[in-house]
Design goal:
- There is one protein chain.
- The protein has one helix and 20 strands.
- With 326 residues, the chain is mainly β.
- It has one domain: 6 Propeller (Neuraminidase), CATH 2.120.10.30.
- β14 and β15 form a beta hairpin.
- The two termini are 20 Å apart.
- 39% of the residues are buried.
- The N terminus is likely disordered.
Length: 326
C-alpha cells in the first residue's frame, strides 16, 4: 500500500515526538541518503528468524553464505578481534543443527583492511570475496577501490590457500567491484560495481570466460529489468540458475530491500525485478541475500527490530512464488 506524503511526514513527526527505536549504527561505507518510503510494513507477516549467538555479535555481521552440505557458513563481521571487517567461518555438526563454532579466518585470508562479501562455490572449494587491501587511502576515497579476490582448498577439511585477484581486467578496475559469486562451472561471475556507464550508482554485472581457470573477458550490465537508478548489489543465484536475488536501495519499505528476478531458461532474458514484499522487508535495511543449497532457505542481513548487534544475520523460508517467473 502506498503512503501519501502527508502520512509519511506524519509518521516521521510521530517518531520525533513519541520516540522510535533508532536504526543501529551503520558502517560508513553503507550510508545512503534517506529516501521516500512507498510501502507500508506489517511486522505481523515477517517470517525471518535471527540466527543468534555466536553467529551474531554486538557489532555488524554481513554476507552470509552457506556450503552445500550445510555444515559451514562464511560471513563477514566487525566484531571484536577484527582488523576492520574480517571474514569468518561458522561450523555445526548437522545441517539442521545450531552453529556452535565461529572463527576468524586469520591473517592468511584477512588483511588489515576491509574483507567482506564471501561467496563459496557449491563444491565448497573456492571462496570469492572483495577486499580493500589494495586501497590507496585518500586518493581512492570511500568505497571507490574494492577488488575481487579468491582462495581455494583441495578438500573440505583442508585449509584455504593463497589469496589471489580474480583474473581478468574486465572484473578488476579502479572502482568498487564487490559481492561476487561464481557459478558451478566456474565460467560465469555475477558481481556489483560502481564503474562508469551503469544505470545507477551501483549496478549488478555478469562476466564470462572461456574456461574455469582463465581470465574473465566479457562483462555485461544486467540491464534495466534488474538494475535501477539507485544502488543494486549482492547477487545470489539459485542452483538451477533461474532465480536471482539481490538488494536494492530504490524506494521501497526501508533503506534497502530484498528483490528477485527470474528467467525461464539459462538462455532467456531476466524478467523485471520485483520486491520480496512485506514478509521479507521492513522499514529498516534488508541486504546481502544468499540461498541455501537446499533452495529452501534465504539468508540475509538486517538491522531490524530484534537484532543482537548493529547488523545481524537472519534466515527465512523460501516463498515458492519468488521462484516463479511473472
Amino acid at each position: 500500500m502506498k503512503l501519501s506524503r502527508f502520512c509519511l511526514y506524519a509518521c516521521l513527526f510521530s517518531c520525533v515526538m513519541v520516540g522510535c527505536k533508532p536504526s543501529p549504527g551503520v558502517n560508513k561505507n553503507e550510508q545512503v541518503d534517506s529516501k521516500e518510503i512507498i510501502h507500508q510494513t506489517d511486522t505481523s507477516k515477517l517470517t525471518a528468524t535471527n540466527m543468534g549467538v555466536p553467529v551474531n555479535s554486538p557489532e555488524g555481521e554481513f554476507n552470509p553464505e552457506m556450503t552445500s552440505n550445510g555444515l559451514e557458513m562464511f560471513f563477514s563481521s566487525e566484531r571484536q578481534g577484527s582488523q576492520d571487517r574480517d571474514l569468518y567461518r561458522a561450523r555445526r555438526d548437522t545441517p539442521d543443527g545450531q552453529w556452535t563454532v565461529v572463527e576468524n579466518m586469520g591473517p592468511k585470508i584477512n588483511s588489515p583492511h576491509l574483507d567482506s562479501g564471501p561467496s563459496i562455490t557449491s563444491d565448497g572449494k573456492t571462496l570469492v570475496f572483495h577486499s580493500e587491501r589494495l586501497f590507496n587511502g585518500a586518493k581512492d576515497g570511500i568505497q571507490t577501490h574494492r577488488d575481487l579476490f579468491f582462495t581455494q582448498r583441495p578438500s573440505l577439511d583442508a585449509p584455504f590457500g593463497k589469496v589471489e585477484l580474480v583474473p581478468g581486467e574486465a572484473v578488476i578496475t579502479e572502482y568498487a567491484d564487490t559481492a561476487a559469486l561464481i557459478t558451478d562451472d566456474g565460467k560465469t561471475i555475477y558481481f556489483s560495481s560502481n564503474r562508469p556507464g551503469g544505470i545507477g550508482s551501483k549496478d549488478i554485472y555478469v562476466a564470462t570466460r572461456e574456461d574455469s581457470t582463465g581470465p574473465f573477458t566479457t562483462v555485461k550490465n544486467m540491464g534495466p529489468n534488474v538494475n535501477s537508478q539507485w544502488v543494486d548489489s549482492n547477487p545470489a543465484i539459485t542452483e538451477d540458475g533461474l532465480t536471482l536475488f539481490f538488494h536494492s536501495k530504490r524506494p521501497g519499505y526501508g533503506r534497502s530491500d530484498l528483490y528477485v528476478t527470474n528467467r525461464v531458461s539459462k538462455d532467456a532474458p531476466w524478467g523485471k525485478a520485483r520486491n520480496l514484499g512485506v514478509t521479507a522487508n521492513t522499514n529498516y535495511a534488508e541486504a546481502n541475500p544468499s540461498v541455501s543449497a537446499s533452495g529452501k532457505i534465504l539468508l540475509f542481513r538486517s538491522d531490524r527490530e530484534g537484532t543482537v548487534g548493529k547488523q545481524d544475520l537472519w534466515q527465512m523460508p523460501m516463498n515458492p512464488d519468488w521462484l516463479k517467473p511473472q
